[in-house]
Amino acid sequence: MDASRMPEAKTEDVLVVEDLVVETAGRNSAKILSGVSLRVAPGETVCLVGESGSGKSVTSLATMGLLPKGALMARSGRILVEGEDVLTARPARLRQLRATRMSMIFQEPMTALNPVLTIERQLEEVLSAHSQMSAKERRDRIRGILELVRLPDVERMCRSHPHQLSGGQRQRVMIAMALVLEPKLLIADEPTTALDVTTQKEILRLIAEIQERLGTSVLFITHDMGVVADIATRVYVMRHGAIVEEGPIQRILEKPERDYTRDLLAAVPALHPREGRAAASREVVLSTSELGMVYRQPSLFRKRQGTVAAKDVNIKLKRGRTLGVVGESGSGKSTVARCVMRLIDPTEGSIRLRGEEIVGLSRGALRPMRKRIQMIFQDPNRSLNPRLTVGDSITEGPINYGSEPRAARERAMELLELVGLPADAVDRHPHQFSGGQRQRIAIARALAMEPDVLVADEAVSALDVSVQAQVLDLLDEIQTRLGIALLFITHDLRVAAQICDEVVVMQNGRVVEYGPTAEVLGNPREAYTRQLIEAAPGRHWDFPNFRPLAPGGPGSIEATA
Amino acid sequence: MLAYIARRILASIPVMIVVALFVFLLLRLTPGDPAAIIAGDMATPAQLDQIRQSLGLNEPLVTQFVTWSGQLLSGDFGRSLISKTPVLRLIGQRLEPTLSLAIVTMLITLLLSIPMGVLAAWRHGSLTDSAVMAISVLGFSIPVFVTGYIFIQIFAIDLRIFPVQGFKSIGEGFWPFFSRIFLPALTLATIYIALIARMTRAAMLDVLGEDYVRTARAKGLSERVVLFRHALRNAAVPILTVVGTGFALMISGVVVTESVFNIPGLGRLTVDAILARDYPVIQALILLTSGIYVVINLLIDISYAFMDPRIRY
């Protein structure tokens, strides 16, 4: 990076990283970070933004002295936390610094807390490791901090185990744990990525509030430009283990200097819905009526109780159209997808695939129907069998349905080209491809069955924005060419706005609002839909055009809400 | 929690019924006349008839089973055909040596294998790790009778620390008891140390990669706390499973060790009973071992719930 542009490190900076080089350990060491420099001033919120593999998490782990031993090591450079070099600190000193001067919260609140210890125990051990407080002082401090992070019913929280809390509550506990000793520096590594938008909004607000109250500096790592726009004072853009660009938030958003930053911003899908497309066909390929799914827990002693995962879901999907199902986790959107695929059996209602009822069909009777509806899953790293070649993965289905292996293979090569991969990819294995490429393979696999309906369950959620944009374009193109109907499950309103003709908004297993995307997202009738839209990070900013959304201007939510 | 325990206990009753049925049929369905088998080659027809009468072999199978289970429930396991003593007393005499051996073995195993496994996982890929793995392979591969005689040679004959053989009840003092039980327990422990050290290492390796371990380190906790409070408890479920089944296996598998060290325990009783075709004793032993298995499995299941608060079936 251009060192001369780097502002002088000031002595009062809480965190100064100078020319940090991190390499993989072992004989053929590869550079993961090549000379990263950044600084965080007191009370500042600095965002470190970049796509997966850019090295932003490695930077944060190095700062905490938490680089995985035997895998990564800092080769050169300095990391000064309040002037003290973390890289040369002895292990005992490093342990002292953690939680007292610097602390960290992580992405997955589901896994970052120890499942077998109570919340109180996990907070208490921070205090007993770093302070001489008496048992009573510790008790009071724990209750105080839990109140500060606005957890309800603090006494019950203390006794709870992590699995009894929601994701948002767990992340509050994490924040409480990180801040209980009031460190000067809080490193937050994608702390809201795994949360729903409304929860994300609350957590971001909470961090900002506490920051103001305690004067904490925050180094916030994220891939989400929307979040950056909402919270950052300054931004560092990372790519391939180096800082590409650095500056105050306003300047970065308005006048990005580097092409990479521009591309990153341009790839953020706009929140305003796409223009309605003329319906290409009147044929309804998929419909559900009164679809419902209740999970009953068999119990020996207690009365059977059911969890309603979906209720009275009525949707219609026409050939060549895209229907989005949006909602937060637990809203029932994936349940609908799984029912439609008959991966689970709905407890009530009917599902019609090209007019034919598929609820209640036996396995055998369902077999010819399976071909007509195919699914793309969220995580392409796990949905493809790592031991099969790409060709085998794609041809397995058609061969099961009686295709000639040779013909199926040729078809697989065509499909690979259709999804933008070289035809010789057939003989390679999934690990030889990037996440975006694997999702293309997954799409090719689904298309090989020549389905009428493609169900995409969060199919672009695990991908970086730039890759996400490409995959969305690909889906759009395929739809135009093949006339496939797309049922698109997503939690991301921006994505839904980009690709869907119509949207179903779900909450607690029920349909809240259903209609053309332009209407539902542009002029929401229901309070819940509005709430979702308002929670979308960075909604005041028109990223691709490097300007704020004029209040009342086109695409602005407030104009119509 | 109580409901969970009650349900686990109820669920183990059918298992015991099936085992009892199996044991019952074992004798009845063996080819040939059970009375003849029991009586041996030299029996007179009158003796055979008397045995049939006493076993109720002339009744229909169902009636036989009901009477027989009724006797079991009231604690009547019959008499040994050889010594004519009640089976229950026979077993009672042999239970203490075997249980002592099993318990001391488990204690030695746990004291050595868990720290070994934790250390190996913590220092993954280091010399310590390789050493632990090497000891494991050795423990697995050397047969019990070889380790037994090696230990006798070293500790009893050369160093003269412990007696060569025998058993003394703990009622006769701790040292007489411990000095005699230690070598056989250590012998028996080698294979379990190998097994449980490996198991602990594998479970710990999994857990050490978890996010909450990273969180624990980020809180500035010492490595000891990270390893034992945060990691080991999460790794406990698979380790407990092996410890439990290992313990149950041990009780039924002490035959060789008891022979080598001349301990008058259940293992020897089993060997003697089988060689003498002492059917009532064999039946009772099978029932006892299965009972121990069922109880230990029950304890493991319940201990899961204590170790991991998420487990509540």
UniProtKB/TrEMBL annotation, chain A:
UniProt-listed SUPFAM superfamilies: P-loop containing nucleoside triphosphate hydrolases
Keywords, ordered alphabetically: ATP-binding, Cell membrane, Membrane, Nucleotide-binding, Transport
MF (Gene Ontology): ATP binding; ATP hydrolysis activity
Membrane topology: Peripheral membrane protein
Keyword Membrane assigned: yes
Gene Ontology annotations of biological process type: peptide transport; transmembrane transport
Domain of life: Bacteria
Chief location bin: membrane
InterPro entries: AAA+_ATPase, ABC_Ni/Peptide_Import, ABC_transporter-like_ATP-bd, ABC_transporter-like_CS, Oligopep_ABC_C, P-loop_NTPase
Keyword rRNA-binding appears in the UniProt entry: no
ABC transporter domain boundaries: 15-265, 295-533
Family label: Belongs to the ABC transporter superfamily.
Protein name from the UniProt record: ABC transporter ATP-binding protein
From TrEMBL, chain B:
Cross-referenced Pfam families: BPD_transp_1 (PF00528), BPD_transp_1_N (PF19300)
Domain ABC transmembrane type-1: 95-300
Family to which the UniProt record says this protein belongs: Belongs to the binding-protein-dependent transport system permease family.
A single GO BP: transmembrane transport
Top-level lineage group: Bacteria
Transmembrane segments: 9-27, 99-122, 134-157, 177-197, 237-261, 281-307
Membrane protein topology class: Multi-pass membrane protein
Organism this protein belongs to: Jiella avicenniae
Swiss-Prot/TrEMBL keywords: Cell membrane, Membrane, Transmembrane, Transmembrane helix, Transport
Annotated compartments: Cell membrane
Lyase in keyword set: no
Main location: membrane
Phosphoprotein in keyword set: no
Name the record gives this protein: ABC transporter permease
Any one annotated GO CC term: plasma membrane
